[in-house]
Design goal:
This protein is mostly helical and 352 residues long. Helices cover 78% and strands 0% of the residues. The chain has one domain: Hydantoin permease (Orthogonal Bundle), CATH 1.10.4160.10. The longest helix is centred in the first third of the chain and has 32 residues. This is Membrane protein YkvI.
């Protein structure tokens, strides 16, 4: 009985860590869902369904591959996917861009403090840095515990918003929302979204696969996490569709949607957005730390401090400039990475 409860707890932690890694600042703000799904009209329901299938299938597969090859960091997985030489280059490129995305997340924390709390952006950066250090030094279990707090709150807000939307005028807009975009762009969007998010999520999902030495827990956790991501995508899409096209003008659409619920819930949702930024940030720093430990014979704490300090200086460039420069660059490599992930069999499915 105790073992069964422990397994269920591990499954939930894996699922919440998966969701927390995917649901970053762009997701929590609503901007990613708007750009990749809602603007494509009623077809978004089908592309979200496809994305959900891909998140379940490939999220599980990534963790099982990490489990099978006993990967310590995502470099081990990339070597397995691409071979020694190409895998090393992919890992180096991933390290650079992953650090860039880490800087984007830190810059985003400064933006939240400035725009939503009317405090200095530097306050946001420094609070995030110090809090991150104390979580990261405690390892993967601490990161999973943080996600176990933030993700349920995010789910609660999303459900609340969905119920409110379905019972308000325009609640059925998602069923007949029109679009002028081509079918090519509509059906390419879910592949771009999934490939980009999974390519960045490898920094934490690979260590999860290596840490949780139980295939059944990884299978169930990946299934639950992938389904939750799909349901969250659909719920936010429905809420955004009810406010189209006007909602598209806002940088943080979800903050606008929460306004009818009052000041208290608005403030709590700001915490949710910050929490999602924070969980993505600590996951990325943790993944980079594991990667650098393969190259440097220095204490782990020194590497963590160095990454945090360097990301602080890079974060001074600001959220939008970093976002618009780095995300398209990483997207070019993400598709080829996704193809290799699909192509490589896991140990159980590999020919004997």
């Amino acid at each position: 009985m105790k073992s069964s409860v422990s397994s269920i707890g591990s499954i939930i932690k894996v699922a919440f860590t998966y969701v927390g890694t995917i649901v970053g600042a762009g997701f929590a703000s609503g901007q990613e869902i708007l750009q990749f799904y809602t603007r494509y009209g009623w077809m978004a329901e089908f592309t979200i369904a496809l994305s959900s299938i891909l998140f379940v299938w490939l999220g599980i597969k990534m963790m099982l591959l990490a489990y099978d090859v006993k990967a310590v960091s995502y470099e081990d997985l990339n070597r397995h996917l691409f071979g020694q030489r190409v895998g090393n280059w992919i890992s180096i490129f991933s390290l650079i861009v992953l650090f860039g995305i880490t800087s984007v997340m830190l810059a985003a924390s400064g933006s939240v403090f400035a725009e939503q709390l009317h405090l200095s952006p530097q306050t946001g950066l420094l609070v995030t840095l110090f809090a991150s250090y104390f979580v990261i030094v405690k390892g993967m279990n601490a990161i999973m515990n943080v996600n176990s707090i933030v993700v349920p709150i995010m789910v609660m807000f999303t459900v609340l918003l969905l119920v409110y939307t379905l019972n308000s005028p325009g609640g059925d807009s998602w069923l007949h929302l029109s679009t002028d975009h081509s079918m090519t762009r509509i059906w390419l969007a879910p592949f771009l979204y999934v490939s980009f998010n999974l390519a960045t999520a490898q920094a934490v999902l690979v260590p999860v696969g290596a840490t949780i030495r139980n295939r059944n827990v990884l299978l169930a956790g990946g299934l639950l996490g992938g389904v939750m991501i799909g349901l969250l995508l659909l719920a936010v899409h429905i809420a955004l569709a009810a406010q189209m096209p006007g909602i598209a003008q806002f940088d943080i659409p979800m903050a606008h949607l929460i306004r009818p619920f009052g000041t208290t819930l608005q403030f709590l949702y700001i915490f949710v957005i910050y929490g999602e930024i924070f969980t993505t940030y600590i996951a990325n720093v943790y993944g980079i730390t594991l990667q650098l430990q393969n190259y440097m014979r220095v204490p782990r704490q020194v590497i963590i401090v160095a990454i945090l300090t360097l990301s602080y200086f890079c974060g001074q460039f600001g959220f939008k400039p970093l976002l618009t420069t780095l995300y398209p660059l990483f997207g070019l490599v993400s598709i080829s990475w996704l193809v290799m992930l699909v192509w490589r069999p896991t140990a159980r499915s590999a020919p004997r």
